[in-house]
Amino acid sequence: MQIFKITLVGLMVVLGTNLVFADTCHECHQSKDLKVTDKKLYDYNLDFEISVHGIAELACTDCHGGDDSTTNLKKAHKGVMDPVRYDKIPGTCGECHDEQHEAFVASNHYKLLEKDGSAPNCVTCHGSMDMDFIFASRVKNTCQFCHNLESDTLPEVPDQADYILSKINIIKGYRGFVQTHASDRDQVQALDARFDQLTARWHSFDLDGVEADTRALLGDYRKAKAQAMKDRKKN
Ligand code: HEC
Ligand code: HEC
Ligand code: HEC
Ligand code: HEC
Ligand code: HEC
């Protein structure tokens, strides 16, 4: 994955022994005043700090734009909701996550999103400020909103998505074991590459193709784990 625009690290200044964020978005959004006037927004910021993006030290401006050098609320906030409007979100995320973005914009969902917003976007599944991997049950509910018997729009989709995501979670378990214990490092690399391709392909919503890839990869991870167990006994 290519990462651009990580600016926050460069902006950190050392004050005594504490590291302090020298951008005004952070300063204001983590202030005790905000905790009193708008607890929800204050908590939002706490969620961000423990998210994958907070830990990777992204700046608020990486996704929101705005001006993080001023304490003037109006100036700071100029245009901050524009890049995170539902139809702009894929492009904003795509600046750093190009593989997922590329697969996603080729899907019918993307066309619907552009037309009238009637399709999931990146944050529907990943969350926004509390960005993380998705949960199978949450995704299933999301899909069901549009894909159900009443609407008759591909009603089989929620169960299929649930099945695939559950299997991907099982793969993740095997993957951790294989990465740590397998002695054939070329094989580990080849499996890792297939896992990355699989999760990128998920974003194209070619569910039948993804389902077949998922099943094949799970089988191969199980074999690799069995082999790694044998190797461990021998040594
Ligand atoms: C002076 C304090 C202050 C600064 C500086 C500040 N914010 Fe805010 N922000 C707030 C407050 C207070 C709110 C609550 C809504 C309001 O009063 O506009 C808010 C709301 C927001 C919202 C929600 C807006 C909406 O329309 O729902 C976003 C997004 C946001 N801030 C992002 C940022 C970003 C990005 C920066 C830096 C470029 C930033 N803020 C700088 C205090 C600040
Ligand atoms: C990885 C991208 C990303 C980063 C970095 C990011 N945000 Fe956001 N933020 C979003 C998205 C996307 C939304 C819109 C969520 C939606 O539509 O459900 C959002 C929404 C918000 C809102 C509006 C909440 C509401 O519902 O009114 C606030 C406030 C906010 N962000 C503040 C911040 C602040 C402060 C920072 C830095 C500490 C920050 N964001 C960093 C992606 C980001
Ligand atoms: C400025 C670059 C940047 C932007 C914009 C950005 N991300 Fe990220 N994202 C990162 C970095 C850095 C990580 C940490 C993991 C890593 O290094 O691979 C990450 C991690 C993730 C992860 C966890 C996957 C992993 O490999 O750990 C997800 C999911 C994710 N981002 C989704 C999004 C979504 C959705 C948006 C848009 C709302 C977005 N990102 C916007 C840089 C970015
Ligand atoms: C329908 C739900 C859904 C939508 C919409 C979605 N994703 Fe994902 N995303 C997933 C799933 C499922 C995975 C893989 C499962 C996992 O790794 O936990 C994933 C994985 C990722 C990862 C980590 C990939 C890795 O190799 O580990 C990133 C980064 C990401 N998505 C970014 C995005 C971006 C950017 C968008 C919007 C363009 C987006 N996602 C839209 C469900 C979704
Ligand atoms: C807001 C409504 C909406 C949501 C939510 C939604 N979809 Fe869709 N989806 C559609 C529509 C509309 C179509 C086009 C149906 C058609 O062509 O008959 C579609 C088509 C599809 C297709 C067919 C392939 C394609 O590209 O046309 C798949 C697969 C699919 N959706 C999967 C999902 C999954 C998985 C989820 C949950 C993460 C989901 N959808 C959530 C509205 C939605």
Please give a quick description of this structure:
The chain has helices spanning 8-11, 24-29, 32-37, 39-49, 52-55, 60-64, 73-76, 89-94, 98-105, 108-116, 122-126, 136-144, 157-181, 185-202, 207-234, and strands spanning 12-15, 18-21.
General description of the model:
The chain is mainly alpha-helical. It folds into two domains: 1-117, no CATH class; 133-234. Helices cover 63% and strands 3% of the residues. The chain contains 15 helices and two strands. The protein has helices at residues 8-11, 24-29, 32-37, 39-49, 52-55, 60-64, 73-76, 89-94, 98-105, 108-116, 122-126, 136-144, 157-181, 185-202, 207-234; strands at residues 12-15, 18-21. A two-stranded antiparallel ribbon has the order 1-2. A hairpin with a 2-residue loop joins strand 1 (12-15) and strand 2. The longest helix has 28 residues, at 207-234. It is globular. The structure holds heme C (5 copies). Residues 90, 93-94, 97, 100-101, 104, 120, 122, 124-126, 133-134, 139, 165, 168, 196, 199, 202-203 line the site of one heme C. Residues 107-109, 112, 118-120, 125, 139, 142-143, 145-147, 153-154, 157, 161, 205, 207 line the site of one heme C (HEC).
